[in-house]
Structures are given as structure tokens and as C-alpha cells.
Specification:
The chain has 90 residues and is an alpha+beta fold. The chain is 29% helix and 22% strand. The strands form two sheets. A three-stranded antiparallel β-sheet has the order 1-4-5, with no helix packed on it. The protein has a two-stranded antiparallel ribbon with strand order 2-3.
Length: 90
């Protein structure tokens, strides 16, 4: 149905797609930018040091395309206050 990995254009109603925003902390990708004066000036190296060991974070949503819009099928918690309740046993 789709020729490309990245979706281009409109999806027909009834389609289900996974939306995968993420951030990754890969040394082999980021370190050249740290050394580059054009790009390196925009990276807070002290903050970055705290995240190297995390590796990355991705939150996936499975979305159903409907005739009038969409329906997010993913039920995972995403709001900070909701996650804190779970962490704290509420």
C-alpha cells in the first residue's frame, strides 16, 4: 500500500499507523556535532553527559485513521502527573 517508510500524503480511513517520536543519545552520531563549532554551540554538554547512559527514549502511539480524524489506540500513560501517581502507588 505504501512505497516509503515515511508516510507521505493522506491516509485512508481504516488505516492504522504507528507514530514513533524519539530522542537517542548515540555517541557516534552526536560527538562529531560536539566538535563542530557551528553545531556544537547549541548543545549543552553538561546536560548531555547526564543522558549518555540512557541511550534513548521513544513513545509509540498506534493511531487509527477515521473518516472524521483519528483515534489513538494506545492506552499508555504519558502525562507526568499520571506517571507520578503510578510511581508513587496511587
Amino acid at each position: 500500500m505504501f512505497k516509503y517508510l515515511r508516510v507521505r500524503g493522506k491516509l485512508p480511513a481504516g488505516s492504522v499507523i504507528t507514530v514513533e517520536p524519539g530522542v537517542y543519545f548515540c555517541r557516534f552520531i552526536i560527538e562529531p556535532y560536539l566538535k563542530d563549532p557551528v553545531h556544537g554551540q547549541f548543545i549543552d554538554k553538561e546536560v548531555l553527559e547526564r543522558y549518555w547512559n540512557v541511550g534513548g527514549v521513544r513513545i509509540e502511539d498506534n493511531v487509527l485513521i477515521t473518516p472524521d480524524g483519528f483515534d489513538n489506540l494506545t492506552t499508555a500513560l504519558k502525562e507526568v502527573d499520571e506517571m507520578e501517581k503510578v510511581i508513587n502507588g496511587y
